[in-house]
Specification:
With 374 residues, the chain is an alpha+beta fold. It has ten helices and 16 strands. It has two domains: 214 residues, Cytidine Deaminase, domain 2 (3-Layer(aba) Sandwich); 113 residues. Strand 12 and strand 13 form a beta hairpin.
């Protein structure tokens, strides 16, 4: 029914204004560890690509749960009718957060909803944005991710200082079929002229426009850019030779899927592990590039888990390939002693640099979480 190779398909891009990109990230960060979303309005180009001119937040009566978001339909219809009459814009897609679930693509419930909406309204093309949260360098327990829980957010009441937002963009070229592909986006600098017109004429309230979300820092947003492979990929980041060398030691199939992000004074390596599980290994930018923290995302279906002290000696300079093997051993619950021997013999890692491993027998395997359908 669906297809996501992990690499953006440049044949199915869409365009969005910088102001609307900020709104997507701001909405996601403000609601924390519950799903939130809204609608994308715009036009289609001659090539059938969406141009998003307005991204709106959830309505006042939208339903927010940890694994499900449902828009306020009465609010949505009123807004959509006004935008259509004044500017001739149409709904071209939607956005919602998967916050810290470790799921960076549409779930089965998301696909079913897109099929239902587009089939009933005779819509052929659709775009969808799934936002995900990634930790900023934690300084202590509870830091580095949004922990607002189920409390209802107020506009502007975001945890933008403790979370980075990843914009995962998807195109449904034949939406009623449910088939989608990951796609890059082109960002136009500045504020959308539609947003400017609506604000100046006071057509909607600032809350309805999501005005408070427009100040989300751009440096905390990452996305697949149509003008380069990805805004946070290793090819675009100037890495120190020591870390680049360690990336080259990884198995080729793993190295192709590695992502690299620069966050303040850190270099964060996003390592694919097994299924939906990823490890975030953060190095200091300054030499000797010691590992600052390690997070495990997707292993339990919950928020990213800080496993730094479980697998690493403080201040370690272990090779990345050894760290990956030890994380896999931790994830699968292998016996501590056996893992050390296996890692030492297969990867030729000096024992003095090997991380310590805590036995984790019975750790739940990662599971694809599917929101309930309405």
């Amino acid at each position: 029914m669906s297809s996501d190779s992990g690499q953006p398909d440049r044949h199915h891009q869409f365009t969005i204004y910088e102001s609307e990109l900020r709104v997507l990230a701001g909405v996601s960060a403000s609601w924390g560890d519950v799903e939130a979303g809204g609608d994308l309005s715009g036009l289609l180009s001659h090539g059938g690509h969406a141009v998003v001119l307005l991204a709106l937040p959830p309505g006042p009566n939208a339903r927010h749960e940890a694994l499900h978001f449902a828009q306020d339909l009465a609010h949505f219809r009123r807004i959509a009718n006004i935008i259509d009459r004044r500017f001739g814009l149409q709904i071209v897609g939607g956005h919602h957060s998967h916050h810290s679930l470790g799921i960076d693509q549409p779930s089965g419930g998301d696909v079913a909803q897109v099929r239902s909406i587009t089939s009933k309204n005779n819509i052929r093309r659709w775009v969808e944005v799934i936002t995900t949260h990634h930790p900023v360098a934690p300084e202590g327990p509870g830091r580095g991710r949004c922990t607002r829980g189920r409390r209802k957010a107020r506009q502007g009441d975001s945890c933008k200082d403790g979370v980075n937002i990843r914009i995962n963009s998807f195109s449904y070229p034949h939406a009623p079929s449910g088939r989608y592909c990951r796609c890059p986006i082109r960002v136009i600098k500045g504020i959308s002229p539609i947003r400017q017109a609506l604000a100046s004429e006071a057509v909607f309230s600032p809350e309805e426009l999501g005005a408070a979300f427009c100040d989300f820092p751009l440096e905390r947003i990452s996305f697949d850019d149509v003008d380069s492979r990805t805004r946070d990929c290793a090819a675009e980041v100037c890495l120190p030779g020591e870390i680049q060398e360690q990336l080259e030691e990884l198995p080729s199939d793993v190295a192709e899927l590695v992502r690299v992000r620069l966050e303040d004074h850190l270099i964060v390596i996003v390592l694919p592990l097994d299924g939906d599980t990823r490890a975030l290994v953060a190095y200091h930018r300054r030499r000797p590039h010691r590992i600052r923290f390690v997070f495990l995302s997707g292993a339990t279906g919950g928020p990213p888990e800080d496993v730094t002290h479980e697998i690493l000696d403080e201040g370690t300079t272990a090779r990345l390939v050894c760290v990956r093997q030890c994380i896999l051993s931790l994830y699968h619950g292998h016996d501590s002693g056996a893992s050390m021997v296996e890692t030492d013999s297969q990867l030729h890692c000096p024992r003095s640099t090997l991380p310590k491993i805590a036995s984790r027998r019975g750790r739940p395997r990662s599971k694809q979480l599917v929101p309930e359908e309405e």
